[in-house]
Amino acid sequence: MVGGTFPGEVRSHAPTFAVVLVVPTGIGAALGGYAGDALPLVRAIAPIADWVITHPNVMNAACLYWPVANSLYVEGYGLDRFALGDWCLRPVRSNPIAVILDRAIAGDLLVRHHQAIAAARASLGLDIPLILTTDRPLEVTLRTAESGATWGTLGRPDSLLRAAEQALAEGARAIAVVARFPDDSDAEVLAAYRHGAGVDALAGAEAVISHLVVRQFAVPCAHAPALSPLPLDPAVAPRAAAEELGYTFLPSVLVGLSRAPQFVPASRARSCDLGADQVAAVVAPATACGGAALLALGDRGVPWILVEENTTLLEVMAADLGRRALTVANNWEAIGVLAALKAGVSPQALRL
Predict the structure, then answer these.
(1) Cα separations (Å) of 162 from 56, 79, 132, 139, 243?
(2) pLDDT tens readout for residues 137-176
């Protein structure tokens, strides 16, 4: 029992069945560690849940995307603040988006990104009133931890923050950042990722960029890396293939941000806003239990549904943290547990 409630209790003010899907980025998750390859899981959960709350790397598939009407596209730092109860989520019909381009993007690559923005306006009807360029190159560097997980640094965070501040002053309600990433990343790591057996070398640095903007300004933000096109490889794995189809990863980011919920301090929330107390369950890989959002939701008594088949480079287990969880073999079973919880049926009643 946590805070006077228990997981099966229907709160009197909103019996919403919201599901949080967490697949941490840059840790080589078997499902969700590639190019939007956890998006089918969001689509499968959506008919069960009133809301599916997840983060950009789950939904982003470069030039591919799938609008899920009852999904909420929430940047990782914002998801942590939501889970802690500091922020609520306010669904929107549309956000005016500012695109911030790294000054280091030049030549054909710059033209391609402007074309992607023009196409999103013309073909998708997205509201993108602003395109800004940072006053200095952002100087992205990539790093790999001993575990194999990826991270990165930003040499000029001040330049990004100045551009974001200008965008918000001019009326933007969401921010897409396109930073120039190094083309000379580790060839073996890149080859492994393209063939479906490695870690996304860009993901950790991307998280640093979006976290910075959301932490500073409390607005929706997501990132798309700018990279030179890779040589054609007929053996690219299906889970990585979405990133091989075009010259930019920006389209899925723009689609996600167009309806990303606004962050509202819990003290100013309205009845239409979604709070952490309305989360009914959280789904995550079984070996990645150390994240702030997962722990905060667990402290609230929200059931953890941990998927063993979704392996990662980490070994942070629920038992190691003294936490109880509903551990399932695969995502099929996870969806079955969610259906039982939605129906008010104990998942254990469905086992012999």
Answers:
(1) 23, 24, 10, 15, 30
(2) 999 998 877 777 777 889 999 999 999 999 999 999 999 9
Q: What are the residues whose beta carbons fall under 8 Å from the beta carbon of 12, sequence distance 6 or more?
A: none
Cα–Cα distance measured from residue 149 to residue 43, given in angstroms and rounded to the nearest whole number: 27
Q: What is the pLDDT of residues 3-52, one digit of tens each?
A: 334 444 444 444 799 999 999 988 999 999 999 999 999 999 999 999 99
What's the whole-number mean pLDDT along residues 244-262? 96
Q: Supply angle C-alpha 235, 236, 240, rounded to 5.
A: 165
Rounded Cα gap, residues 343 and 352, in angstroms: 19
DSSP 310: S
Q: For residue 139, is it left (φ>0), alpha (ψ between -120 and 50) or beta? A: left
Walk me through the domains of the chain, giving residue ranges and CATH numbers: 18-91+263-350 (3.40.50), 97-258 (3.40.50)
Element (H, E) at 90: strand 87-90
Give the Cβ contact number of residue 156 at 10 Å: 18
Cα end-to-end distance, the chain, whole Å: 27
pLDDT band at 1 (very low <50, low <70, confident <90, very high): very low
Residues whose CB is less than 8 angstroms from the CB of residue 332 and which lie 6 or more positions away in sequence, other chains included:
none
Q: Which residue has the tokens 């009845």?
A: 271
Instruction: Answer whether 136's CB lies under 8 Å from 103's CB.
Output: yes
The encoded tokens of residue 338 equal 């969610």
